[in-house]
Amino acid sequence: MAVVRDLRVLLRFQGFRRLLAVRLLSQGADGVYQVGLAAYVVFSPERQTTAAAIASAMAVLLLPYSLVGPFAGVLLDRWRRRQVLLYGSALRALLASATALLILGGAPDWLFYVSALCVTAVNRFVLSGLSAALPRVVDTGRLVVANSLSPTAGTLAATAGGGLAFAVRLLVADSDAAVVLVGAALYLCAALASLRMARELLGPDRELVRPHLGEALAGTARDLIAGVGHIASPPRREAARALAAMALMRFCYGALLVMLLMLCRYALSSTADEGLALLGLALGVSGAGFFAAAVATPWAAGRVGPGCWIAVCAAAAAVLEPALGLPFATVPLLVAAFVLGLTTQGAKIATDTVVQSSVDDGFRGRIFSVYDVLFNVAFVGAAAVAALILPPDGRSVLLVVTIAVIYGAVAVAMARFERQ
């Protein structure tokens, strides 16, 4: 396979191997930590979980990415990136250990969320540092392949970390704190792995650093505003439409995920452990849908065009989501998890393609920062809306029908744009 061949070539670069090891450990720890949080918030037998609590947890996990992300690059151009990986990973290990102690001590929810918020805020710097460092460890000719394979490997590591967390929680120790401590140990391993790289290996070059932090931050804000203006201009309307469609589909996916969490916790299981196992199975099936999208989308979008493929994905979700969701039964919901994983990721890949091909190179980075903000804010907003609609057991015909209508509207709008 071409992917295996490309990865084998990249692994010949010592710096790439060591940077990839840090990514795998770091994102694997993210998967463990996030499942540990979800298990504590949703599946602790002693806690009465609500949709509002789930929405709060999602906000803690995702909003730092949106608020810190656009400005992280400014600091990463001032600090040695190897040191960011080292100290960032060590700090996350310490904060994750503190989270475990808060769980054991039955601390107030606000203190628990502050601890988790700090971990996820530091994550943004580490992930941005991993991406910014990549050109320093591979040659220019292989950079595109490295940019494709390295984040994909990280996503797989996060999925594997989530699987490890489920295994620890269900098979080894019936303790959310134990799961979070496993994540802390992996963060510490990521910090130690970063020591295998020289301090100066990952940059930045000192002569390229902006002299004043305030000036750099203000410049970043101006750049983001200019990026919004760029994508709103008539030549880039296709990219703006694709971003709007993707934000709405992300909103739908987020609302349905909250409903799934509530169903697994109450309606479809008799115990917290049984619900946690069902959630793990559903997320694994959804992950399979993401993988299927990665295989199918290049072929499908190549034949009908990325904009039309977004419309097809939205239309499929509009039809299948109520058909599979309204019975509120386990097997149809698992099928729906696969379908929504495929359609959501398929639309995202197509949106990435539209943005990359229609936005000027000088604005591309800024547009993807805006994209990242839209992506996560839509997800958190969906959780908040779901918290207002969902009943205690998660069964909501209104939510399922509303989401189907949104999917249908996206499909119709994108089809009209494509015809024009």
Summarize this structure briefly.
The protein is built from 14 helices and no strands.
CATH architectural category of the largest domain: Up-down Bundle
Tally of strands: 0
Computed over alpha carbons, the radius of gyration is 21 Å
Question: Which series of helices and strands comes N to C?
Answer: HHHHHHHHHHHHHH
Question: What count of helical segments does DSSP give?
Answer: 14
Which residues form runs of ≥5 with pLDDT under 50?
none
CATH topology label of the largest domain? Growth Hormone, Chain: A
Distance between the termini: 39 Å
General shape: globular
Helices and strands in order, then pairings?
Layout: H1 2-10, H2 14-42, H3 51-76, H4 81-105, H5 109-133, H6 143-172, H7 176-194, H8 213-232, H9 237-267, H10 272-304, H11 306-325, H12 330-358, H13 361-389, H14 397-419
Helix pairs in contact: 2-3, 2-4, 2-5, 2-6, 2-7, 3-5, 3-8, 3-13, 4-5, 4-7, 6-7, 6-10, 8-13, 9-10, 9-12, 9-13, 9-14, 10-11, 10-12, 11-12, 11-14
Q: How would you characterize this protein structure?
A:
This protein has 420 residues and is mostly helical. It has helices at residues 2-10, 14-42, 51-76, 81-105, 109-133, 143-172, 176-194, 213-232, 237-267, 272-304, 306-325, 330-358, 361-389, 397-419. It folds into 2 domains: 1-209, Growth Hormone, Chain: A (Up-down Bundle); 234-420, Growth Hormone, Chain: A (Up-down Bundle), CATH 1.20.1250.20. The chain has 14 helices and no strands.
